[in-house]
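Q: Please design a sequence for this.
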């Protein structure tokens, strides 16, 4: 057994050896940890740089995205502004007719807001529009627009004419159609006016030709009547000489003619002949197409000629009314000549007088009355046509100047007479035509014509 001192020494040596070995291992571990830490720091730095680069790239991409989104929103708003600024109705629909777009014109025409229209089928919110699913399917299938022209639409108590075009819409993401509706009521009105004017022109030429043809035999009839009256006059020497030669007493013959009312019949025939000649003269004046330019016109003369023309027309077409009708004329003699087209002005007045006569016949008045008057109301010459006919309510009086609007039965009116009259007064003469009416009482039309046209005033 080793001595205790040696044992202690051995143990200390072993401990020292262990400590030395552990210290060496510790140093190696520390060195390894330091190398690992350095590697981690290097990797962390690289990752940090990479993260910073990625963050910068992401921020740049996000900024570009914000700019792109702003540009897209701006472009969308710009396109919406363009579409909403268009007077045409623009409606986007899916193949199943569900509404995807509804512009401002569609809102104005229907009174339906865009939010209320989106998602609904077209026929559910706009049943008046004659666009069927088959029309949409056809446009999409053929990849060609489908068009309907001059389609009549009744909406909100008004009649409009529109052109409808269905455009197919194809893209990578969606399929549908865009419906464009253009209001062509004014074009239809002008086309109808042109057609009506052509008819009036043809009718005028026909009336002028007939008047000339009637004038010749009428003149011969009147001349023959005058000759008969002269040959039956007992005071003329030639008649006395011829009667004596034949043994005829002129006074007895004259008494016989008076007793049998033959002279009265002859005077009636002469009066009727002169009246027919006056009617023919008014027909010629009414059909005259050479006076369409504005020139100094006696409004009182035109008004009187229109009354005389209508007296004859009413006598032929409404004999029962003619027997009771009273037409009063009250003209302002101080009214100067104004720049106007006599033929067009007479066309307007004849139309108003005819409407007045028809209104009184419909009302069945015992004492039908038309009153036509003129007044000097500077800077206008005023013409009033008043009647005690059936009258109109406020809704009707607001629409009477609209083209194709009529209260007459189907086939009895085109609804263009007052529309053309409004065009002649407002556009051709730069004046005004107004109406005041009370149901069951009567109607008054007021025409205001400028004493001087703007071009003439500007040149002075």
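A: Design:
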């Amino acid at each position: 057994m080793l001595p205790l001192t040696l044992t202690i020494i051995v143990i200390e040596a072993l401990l020292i050896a262990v400590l030395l070995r552990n210290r060496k291992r510790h140093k190696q571990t520390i060195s390894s940890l330091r190398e690992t830490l350095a590697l981690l720091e290097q990797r962390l730095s690289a990752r940090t740089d990479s993260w910073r680069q990625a963050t910068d790239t992401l921020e740049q991409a996000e900024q570009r995205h914000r700019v792109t989104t702003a540009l897209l929103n701006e472009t969308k708003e710009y396109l919406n502004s363009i579409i909403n600024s268009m007077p045409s109705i623009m409606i986007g629909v899916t193949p199943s007719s569900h509404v995807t777009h509804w512009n401002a014109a569609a809102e104005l025409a229907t009174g339906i807001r865009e939010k209320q229209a989106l998602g609904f089928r077209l026929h559910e919110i706009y049943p008046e529009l004659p666009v069927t699913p088959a029309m949409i399917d056809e446009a999409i299938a053929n990849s060609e627009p489908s068009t309907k022209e001059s389609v009549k639409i009744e909406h909100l108590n008004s009649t409009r004419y529109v052109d409808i075009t269905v455009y197919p819409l194809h893209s990578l993401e969606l399929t549908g159609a865009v419906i464009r509706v253009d209001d062509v009521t004014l074009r239809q009105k002008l086309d109808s006016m042109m057609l009506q004017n052509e008819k009036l022109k043809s009718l005028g030429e026909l009336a002028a030709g007939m008047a000339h043809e009637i004038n010749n035999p009428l003149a011969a009839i009147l001349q023959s009547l005058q000759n008969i009256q002269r040959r039956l006059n007992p005071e003329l020497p030639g008649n006395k000489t011829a009667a004596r030669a034949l043994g005829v007493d002129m006074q007895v013959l004259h008494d016989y003619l008076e007793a049998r009312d033959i002279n009265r019949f002859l005077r009636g025939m002469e009066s009727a002949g002169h009246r027919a000649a006056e009617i023919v003269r008014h027909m010629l004046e009414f059909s005259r197409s050479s006076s369409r330019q504005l020139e100094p016109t006696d409004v009182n003369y035109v008004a009187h000629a229109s009354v005389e023309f209508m007296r004859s027309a009413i006598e032929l077409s409404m004999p029962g009314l003619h027997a009771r009708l009273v037409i009063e004329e009250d003209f302002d003699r101080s009214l100067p000549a104004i720049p106007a087209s006599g033929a067009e002005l007479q066309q307007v007045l004849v139309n108003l007088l005819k409407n007045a006569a028809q209104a009184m016949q419909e009302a069945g008045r015992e004492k039908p009355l038309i009153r036509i008057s003129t007044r000097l109301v500077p800077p206008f010459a005023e013409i009033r046509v008043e009647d005690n006919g059936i009258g109109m309510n406020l809704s009707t009086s607001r629409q009477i100047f609209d083209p194709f609007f009529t209260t007459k039965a189907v086939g009895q009116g085109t609804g263009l007479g007052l529309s053309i009259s409004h065009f002649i007064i407002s556009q051709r003469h730069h004046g005004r035509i107004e109406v005041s009416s009370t149901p069951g009482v009567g109607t008054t039309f007021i025409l205001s014509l400028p004493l001087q046209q703007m071009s003439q005033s500007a040149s002075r």
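Q: Thanks. Anything notable?
A: Confidence is low (pLDDT under 50) at residues 456-460. The chain has three domains: 86-183, 201-289, 294-460.
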